[in-house]
Structures are given as structure tokens and as C-alpha cells.
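Appendix C reproduces, verbatim, an entry submitted by the partner laboratory led by Prof. M.T., so that reviewers can inspect both the input and the predicted structure.
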Amino acid sequence: MKEENAHRATIKVIEYSSILVFSLVVLFVLVPLIQKIVYNMAWNAAMTSTKETVNTVKTFYTDMNLFNEVGLPFKVVFYEDGHEFYEFGKKVSYLYELNIQNDGELPTGGSVQINKDGSATVTDLTFGHFKCNQTNEQNLECKREE
């Protein structure tokens, strides 16, 4: 009887040890995978938000030209609590000012400039932990800031 109980105890220890080892292997494989998925989702969101912010600024510029003649380069600088407009490099405020609104959240830092050729330059546009930059219409880059 004692021998049988000792044998069962040994089998239980082996079973529990194998379950623990299996769980650790799954944990070591899944955690980096989940972290990569979360990072990619945040990166995609920053890229999309940057593109939409550029489109919003271009639309805003076009709308402002219906009321006032707005010159190029036209720049919008974003802050955590708002934004400012620059025309020809000088800060301006318009008599009739439209609010910039975006379907998603607005950036908490950085700027978008519409150049004389109609292209957009994005400088350190900040969404969460990502800063995005673009010097022409093709090379948008978002990098996580530490």
C-alpha cells in the first residue's frame, strides 16, 4: 500500500511538473507574440491618424480659402491643449476661424505644413508613444519614442 501511494505521488509530481513546463513554454512563446501584435496595432493607428490629420489640415486650408485668402506655406502646429496657425511662417488668427476636428484623436504635438507645391510636410506629429514624420507624399514614418 505504501509502495502504491509513493508510486502515485511520483506520478503526480511528474504530471504537475510537465504541466508547469508546458505552461512556461506557452507563456514564453505567446507573450512576445502578443506584444508584437499590440505594437503593430498601435503603429498602424499612428500611421492612419497621421494620414487623416494631413487630410484634415488640407481640407481646413481649402475651407479657409472660401472665407479669406490663405497663403502657402500654411502650417498647423498642434499642442496637447489646441493648435495654432502659421501663414508664410508667421502666426495668424483668422476673423472667422473653423475648428479642426478629426474622426479620431488629434495629435498632442508636432506640425503639418502644406507647401507651395501642394505637398504636405509632417514634423514630429505625436500620437500616443509614436512620432510621425513625412517630407513628401510617399515616405511617412512613425517611430515609437521611448
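Residues 60 and 100 are 7 Å apart (CA to CA). Additional entries are available on request from the coordinating office.
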